[in-house]
Amino acid sequence: MEQDKTKKLLETGKSTYLPVYAQKEMILDYGKGARLWDLADKEYIDLGAGIAVSVLGHQNPELVQVATEQLGKLWHTSNIYFTEPAIQLASDLVDATFADRVFFSNSGAEANEAAIKLARKFASSHASSEKHEIITFEGSFHGRTLTTITATAQPKYQEGFGPLPEGFTYCPFNDFEAIEQKISDKTCAILLEPIQGEGGVHVARPGFLAHLQALCQKHEALLIFDEIQSGMGRTGRLLAYEWEENIQPDIVTVAKALGGGLPIGAMLATERVAQTMKVGDHGSTFGGNPVIAAVACAILKQVCSSALMDNVNKQSEKLQAALSDLKEQKQLFKEIRGRGLIVGAELQGAWEGRAADLSEVCLQHGLLILQAGPNVLRFLPPLNITDEELEEGLQRMKSALNHV
What we know:
- The protein folds into 2 domains: about 1-60 and about 305-400, Alpha-Beta Complex (Aspartate Aminotransferase, domain 1); about 75-305, 3-Layer(aba) Sandwich (Aspartate Aminotransferase, domain 2).
- The protein has 13 helices and 17 strands.
- It has helices at about 1-15, 50, 60-70, 85-95, 110-125, 145-150, 175-180, 210-220, 270-275, 290-305, 305-330, 355-365, 385-400; strands at about 30, 35-40, 45, 100-105, 135, 170, 185-190, 195, 200-205, 220-225, 250-255, 265-270, 335-340, 340-345, 365-370, 370, 375-380.
- The strands form 4 sheets. It has a 7-stranded mixed sheet with strand order 4-12-11-10-7-5-6, with helices on both faces. It has a 4-stranded mixed sheet with strand order 1-2-3-15. The protein has a 4-stranded antiparallel sheet with strand order 13-14-17-16, covered by helices on one side.
- α6 (about 145-150) links the parallel β5 (about 135) and β6.
- The mean pLDDT is about 95.
């Protein structure tokens, strides 16, 4: 019966969805912690967390309680009015970060759109409209809107969508000399991920962020960090750029894990930069939704706890050690890279370029993992994953790899 139901639903989904996803032949039904079950009641260990979103796992009791309580009070008002959860979340983000001001959106792409608009408005207000160029980095990923795919320095995301918005310049990632050649007095901002996620899990080299900061100060440009995937505790600190000392960004964007599975994004900015925006310059109908904001407050509190960050560091060591063992035993991986619980394993040999095939093998063995391009397996488990859940997931991965 369940097989028939699954088959029928898959057929309906395939015939009604816009065909932009390479979806698996399964229908997930419910979850708990780092475990998921499909309609056939097959269990999976989730080492992808909905692409770094389900930061506290599935059906986290505290988040369920907070959401249920707010659902019983108020769902939506629009931003014509204040609500307590949104005010509290903005205040909590300001207290926890460099920021003085917060703008709420529905997604990471929209948070980046807001950051791009703010950077250009700041430059036009303090310099001229000619100071509008934004430098991004090869291998980056900043979203799926027309502007953010243009900011994303990967041609595969841009093909067929031209003409693209003007004013973006691309630079090799982690190249100290190249960025010095690219930046100019027309540059209004540098936008980058401290750890490139979709681009293959590449970490900014020591000193690179400080180098960018110095160049931005010299050319009176803004420094913008896209922490949509690397932020919210994923690296063992609230924001990934905090691993490099004495860095002071002008704008940071967060999303994904901020809502724990509910849609939200946020642009964080300093007072100096934020005051450029005036009433009517930007907005979002659903940004700061009270239900999502209430849940995000609870998530932020847990993410800022030393207990959760200790768990991130502990489980990161286990995960990277297990991948390193597989690298030595099977010669499957060329390199293991990342920080905290954002880890990439680059494939080599017979499996080079076949990350999708290998993730499918893992799926058949009850393990959900991701890829970052055709040649990198990506691991983004819940930050509160337990010893038992991670160990079982690693055992399933070893079992899967024994069949390749």
